[in-house]
């Protein structure tokens, strides 16, 4: 703001006197009448020019003061928010010193210079006077320039989910170290960089989750049981999700498939079981988002085996804590689970028993045991042997091979915590093995950022900055998608086209990869729609498909990062950590009084 001020200076009086004498000389000259008239005409123009020059000078000075006041206010607001124990008078003295350095050649005075450590509010009203160059001829010797700024920071939680690729290719070497080791080192660098601004990490409003992933993610036991040691309510052990029975279809008393999906009423009907069609036969809840278990169990002559029954069958196997994606309307979303909708529950991973006698299969029981009607000349039917539910009823007490946990062998994930020891222990436990399914890492990293189950320890959306840092070294690569051969995934068997992508009966690797690519993009869209910032880091030389996923998933071009080697990965994670550290304080300018 610019306003008029003090009496004239001596120099101003002299200038005014000279101008008056000039006018007298014009008046005394009889021949100068025209000049006098011209002079009077010039006076308004002369005054307007003087006003413009002096006003421009005043605005320039005002901008300089306001820029300095804004910078100092932000600096002091941040300082007092981070450490409210600094005396206000010390911060005021510091701020005035900074103002003097930034507004050189001017003497500043202050109507207000306030620092409130309790609220973090800083208010500055600074002013100075400037001499006019031409306006003093019209009685305006000085202009007072005022700059006022306010700043305030609120402490804001920051929650960071770090999802690290643990697939087998991470065992390769890059820049003199194994890629998995480079990822471990870079993750530590990221956490250090993000927390360096904090005096006490344990008490800071910054938490990390760690999600090691390949085709599966393991949830720690403490989060899948309640305080009494019972299974958490949000896990679908009983079969309320429409995907629970896809590979455990109910059967009749003759050992055949209960729901008729193919021709004939006898013999090996399991060869006609189509998992993608089972939802059309199951009795559903009123809204269609789950199975009506009471109605299902009431069907005459029906036999049901659940995933819990399968794990309970074996004395040498305990469920390892992996999950499939949810089903139905909840497939790609992150809404809270509820007992009202079976599809909102989380389906425990259970890898089906695959065909006997063929190498490369997850074969852990006989295909023809128990109540099964599969046998004789149907021995060579791979589909029948995988779909054959009754075999689990007569399974031995010990499973062999991989068992129903399948490839559920990643290091357990760590939900949001500020316990650095727990995080570093989990990082150290990461190992390279398995195939690549980006959808699993993306979805479970996001689950750690939701304020409801499975973990329910995140802040509400809007009350914290939420960041997802996702690192991978490869393309989606579901295993053996054209066969039932250790290929069960978070999206179940690729060859059964459960996402309805018109895949052939035996899809190629590239066709299956494309389905998983599309699913990855859909998960990323859902995550970004919730306001989560995604840093997508590709470690290595990304393919065209991987680049498309990276560019789609990252929040901006700046958060899509390709790191060619170990050093570039560490540099990228350090930069991400620096960016995250800056988010701890949310700046806002309160209204001026």
What does this structure look like?
The chain has helices spanning 10-28, 33-82, 88-102, 179-195, 293-297, 307-313, 382-387, 420-429, 438-447, 509-529, 544-553, 566-582, and strands at 2-4, 109-116, 121-131, 142-155, 157-165, 173-174, 177-178, 206-213, 414-417, 464-472, 533-539, 560-563, 585-588. The protein is α/β, with parallel strands linked by helices and 593 residues long. It has 3 domains: 2-152, no CATH class; 157-218 and 409-583, 3-Layer(aba) Sandwich (Rossmann fold); 237-408, no CATH class. The strands form 3 sheets. The protein has a 6-stranded mixed beta sheet, sandwiched between helices. Strands 1, 2, 3, 4 and 13 form a 5-stranded antiparallel beta sheet that branches. It has a two-stranded antiparallel ribbon with strand order 6-7. A hairpin with a 2-residue loop joins strand 6 (173-174) and strand 7. The longest helix has 50 residues, at 33-82. Residues 2-9 have low confidence and may be disordered.
Classify the fold: give the CATH topology of the largest domain: Rossmann fold
Which runs of at least 5 residues are low in confidence (pLDDT < 50)?
2-9
C-alpha geometry: elongated
Q: Termini separation (Å)?
A: 15 Å
Number of domains: 3
Structural class: alpha/beta
Query: How many distinct helices?
Result: 12
Number of strands: 13
Biggest sheet architecture: 6 strands, mixed
CATH architecture type of the largest domain = 3-Layer(aba) Sandwich
InterPro entries: Tad_N, VWF_A, vWFA_dom_sf
Protein name: VWFA domain-containing protein
Keywords: Membrane, Transmembrane, Transmembrane helix
Organism: Effrenium voratum
């Amino acid at each position: 703001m610019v306003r008029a001020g003090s009496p004239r200076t001596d120099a101003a009086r002299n200038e005014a006197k000279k101008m008056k004498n000039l006018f007298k000389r014009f008046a005394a000259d009889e021949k100068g009448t025209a000049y006098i008239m011209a002079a009077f005409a010039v006076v308004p123009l002369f005054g307007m020019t003087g006003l413009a020059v002096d006003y421009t000078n005043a605005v320039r000075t005002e901008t300089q003061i306001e820029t300095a006041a804004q910078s100092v206010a932000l600096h002091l607001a941040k300082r007092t928010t981070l450490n409210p124990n600094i005396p206000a008078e010390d911060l005021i003295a510091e701020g005035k010193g900074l103002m003097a350095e930034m507004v050189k050649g001017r003497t500043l005075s202050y109507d207000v210079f306030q620092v409130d450590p309790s609220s973090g509010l800083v208010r500055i009203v600074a002013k100075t006077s400037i001499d006019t160059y031409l306006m003093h001829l019209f009685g305006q010797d000085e202009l007072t320039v005022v700059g006022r700024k306010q700043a305030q920071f609120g402490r804001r939680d920051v929650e960071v989910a770090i999802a690290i690729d643990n697939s087998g290719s991470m065992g390769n070497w890059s820049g003199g170290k194994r890629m998995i080791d480079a990822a471990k080192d870079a993750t530590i660098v990221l956490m250090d960089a993000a927390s360096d601004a904090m005096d006490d990490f344990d008490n800071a409003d910054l938490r990390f989750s760690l999600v090691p992933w390949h085709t599966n993610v393991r949830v720690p036991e403490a989060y899948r049981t309640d305080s009494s040691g019972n299974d958490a309510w949000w896990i679908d052990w009983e079969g309320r999700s429409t995907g629970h029975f896809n590979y455990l279809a109910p059967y009749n008393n003759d050992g055949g498939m209960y729901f008729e999906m193919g021709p004939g009423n006898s013999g090996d009907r399991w060869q006609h079981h189509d998992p993608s069609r089972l939802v059309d036969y199951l009795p559903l809840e009123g809204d269609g988002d789950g199975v009506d278990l009471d109605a299902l169990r009431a069907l005459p002559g029906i036999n049901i085996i659940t995933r819990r029954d399968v794990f309970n069958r074996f004395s040498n196997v305990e469920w390892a804590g992996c999950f499939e994606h949810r089903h139905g309307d909840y497939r790609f979303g992150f809404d809270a689970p509820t007992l009202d909708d079976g599809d909102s529950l989380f389906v425990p991973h259970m890898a089906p028993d695959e065909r006997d006698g063929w190498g490369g299969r997850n074969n852990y029981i006989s295909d023809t045991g128990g109540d099964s009607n599969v046998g004789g000349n149907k021995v060579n039917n791979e589909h029948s042997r995988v779909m054959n539910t009754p075999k689990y009823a007569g399974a031995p007490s010990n499973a062999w091979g991989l068992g129903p946990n399948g490839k559920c062998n990643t290091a357990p994930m760590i939900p949001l915590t500020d316990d650095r020891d727990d995080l570093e222990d989990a990082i150290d436990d990461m190992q390279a093995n398995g195939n690549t399914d980006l959808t699993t890492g993306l979805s479970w990293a996001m689950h750690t950022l939701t304020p409801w189950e499975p973990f329910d320890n995140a802040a509400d959306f809007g009350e914290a900055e939420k960041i997802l840092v996702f690192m991978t070294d490869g393309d989606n690569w579901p295993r053996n998608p054209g066969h039932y051969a250790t290929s069960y995934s978070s999206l179940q068997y690729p060859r059964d086209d459960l996402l309805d992508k018109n895949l052939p009966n035996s899809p190629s690797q590239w066709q299956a990869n494309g389905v998983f690519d599309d699913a990855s993009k859909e998960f990323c869209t859902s995550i970004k729609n919730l306001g989560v910032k995604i840093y997508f880091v590709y470690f290595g030389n990304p393919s065209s498909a991987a680049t498309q996923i990276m560019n789609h998933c990252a929040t901006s071009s700046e958060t899509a990062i390709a790191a060619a080697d170990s050093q570039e990965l560490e540099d990228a994670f350090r930069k991400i950590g620096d960016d995250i550290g800056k988010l701890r304080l949310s700046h806002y300018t309160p209204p001026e009084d």
